[in-house]
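FORM 12-B: Structure-to-Sequence Request
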């Protein structure tokens, strides 16, 4: 699912600074009253709760973070009622709008994830069929909440297989996700020359990804068999043939560059959420 971006997107790295700025300047002269002391206490509670919201947000505990954003904003609204200075009032309104925007963003995401996680999508790809690019198959799950992608595929070895992995990396970059790490778990041939060529090509991809702030970690295994892609949002994409689902074609044939037009091998794609596995494993 693709989430619509809020008009005023909040950068989490700036939220802590926003929270700290909620307090009055220490040197600003004020005439304290009991009402002021009460408002100050409420404001302190709001700052504490909103700081926790940001921490949970960064830890990807979105549902808990949403609760804290809602509670923190509720307290800020109480403080807003006590403010009479026009400039300060505008400042509080701006902060409230920013927190509400992030909260609404998380609310939509959490709701849609809960609904979608109940589903198990299975796609059967017929032999020689077209229209099955990586973007068409699972591009919608590469949303801005994804920060890590892990790929299990024992056959990212030969030239065309490594090209397929590169196409996946290009899709991740093109979707403008917040991915900062890709983990590739794969195998290698026994032939030393083949291993060297494989390492050189994967190393080139690694250097290229660095320009986009993405770290590529590669693990080699002699026992890996399963083929799947795991997103840190909980989604799992299992492809029977792994990334190597496209048939070879001439370099000057339609479909060589655009995988949307490339004939495919017969295979099955299963897309499901990890919470589905947890719920199915619970005893009745």
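FORM 12-B RESPONSE
SEQUENCE OUT:
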């Amino acid at each position: 699912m693709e989430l619509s971006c809020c008009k005023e997107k909040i950068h989490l790295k700036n939220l802590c600074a926003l929270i700290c700025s909620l307090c009055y300047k220490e040197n600003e002269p004020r005439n304290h009253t009991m009402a002021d002391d009460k408002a100050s206490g409420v404001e302190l509670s709001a700052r504490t709760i909103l700081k926790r919201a940001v921490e949970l947000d960064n830890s990807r505990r979105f549902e808990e973070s949403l609760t804290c954003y809602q509670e923190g904003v509720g307290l800020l609204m109480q403080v807003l009622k006590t403010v009479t200075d026009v400039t300060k009032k505008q400042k509080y309104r701006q902060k409230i709008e920013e927190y509400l925007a992030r909260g609404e963003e998380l609310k939509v995401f959490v709701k849609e994830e809960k609904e979608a996680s109940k589903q198990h999508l299975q796609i059967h790809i017929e032999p020689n069929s077209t229209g099955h690019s990586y973007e068409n198959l699972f591009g919608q799950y590469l949303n801005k909440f994804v920060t890590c992608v892990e790929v299990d595929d024992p056959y990212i070895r030969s030239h065309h297989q490594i090209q397929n992995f590169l196409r996946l990396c290009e899709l991740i970059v093109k979707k403008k996700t917040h991915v900062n790490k890709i983990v590739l778990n794969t195998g290698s041939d026994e032939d030393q020359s083949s291993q060297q060529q494989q390492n050189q090509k994967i190393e080139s991809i690694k250097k290229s990804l660095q320009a986009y702030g993405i770290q590529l970690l590669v693990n080699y295994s002699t026992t890996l068999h399963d083929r799947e892609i795991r997103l840190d949002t909980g989604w799992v994409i299992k492809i029977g043939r792994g990334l190597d689902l496209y048939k070879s074609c001439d370099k000057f044939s339609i479909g060589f560059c655009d995988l949307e037009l490339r004939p495919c091998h017969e295979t099955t794609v299963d897309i499901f959420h990890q919470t589905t596995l947890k719920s199915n494993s619970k005893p009745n």
